[in-house]
TrEMBL record:
This is ABC transporter permease. Residues 127-316 form the ABC transmembrane type-1 domain. It is found in: Cell membrane. GO terms for biological process: transmembrane transport. It comes from Proteinivorax hydrogeniformans. Belongs to the binding-protein-dependent transport system permease family.
Amino acid sequence: MSDIKNKNDKQQDVKELNAEQLVKEADKRASDSSMWNTFKRRFRRSKTAIAGFILLIIMFSTAIIGPVIYGGFEFTIGDTEISWNGTHGHHYRAQNLDNRLAEQSWEHPLGTDRLGRDVLARVLWGGRVSLAVGFVAMGISGSIGIVMGASAGYFGGAVDAIIMRFTEIVMSFPLLFLLLTILAFFDGGIMLIMVVIGITGWTGVCRLVRAEFLSLRERDFTQAAQALGASDMRIIFKHILPNAMAPLIVSITLGIGGAILTETTLSFLGIGITPPNPSWGNVLNDGQSYLRDHHYLTTYPGIFIFLTILGYNFLGDGLRDSLDPRLKQ
């Protein structure tokens, strides 16, 4: 009897060692430096990814540094006031009705709008607003989608059914109509726009994360972690989620571009970012009545929007190719 007991104990020890080995191998795969080296090599070879990355660097640099160089700055440190008028000194809110709808010139490189405001100053500052909305809104969407999708995919059963039925209900509403309904009851502040776009755009991330979790929860390393007594939260966030990051990164990258486009659409319709705060959408709105005679009022904001969305799409496609383990190295 003692021999049988010792044999069973040894078998149990072997099973535990095997389980621990599986978990360690899974964690190593999720954080293996060779995987990131492979990603960097593929990324550098992807012309699409590099083009998107360069485009976004240019757009972000223009939005962050451009208003300072073009319009200057002013701030106070203690009793010392520091200011610089920039290359042109135009503030995006400054009006000059005597110079309304001015053509392009050195003084106003993209002309002025119906209130005499410098179009370039408004486009540069509007880039800050639109890019910030895209990032924050997708951050909210991604957080909600990850939590909902991970819960549905890992726990399954009734939890999965409830979450997916709720997701389908949200998806059944036309997104624009849902946004219009919510914003009709509130003023279009920047933070509100970020939150509204964020809480209505999580369904795609949720479905993606759920699909990844349904696959990964059946893998040996997940079952080994459960056998070792790891908590559900540890398994979800330490073992499964890191192994599902590749498609998630791609989805979030593409989603930022979608959030910027949504904000632009809402602002163009007059229910997004409200004047005098500029965004690319309401700058387009200001110029739509003068499209025939003053095309620059809409052409240049449209170019900025186009290049930004194109950059995110290129980068997302490049990341997909670089992170896809099924591609040849």
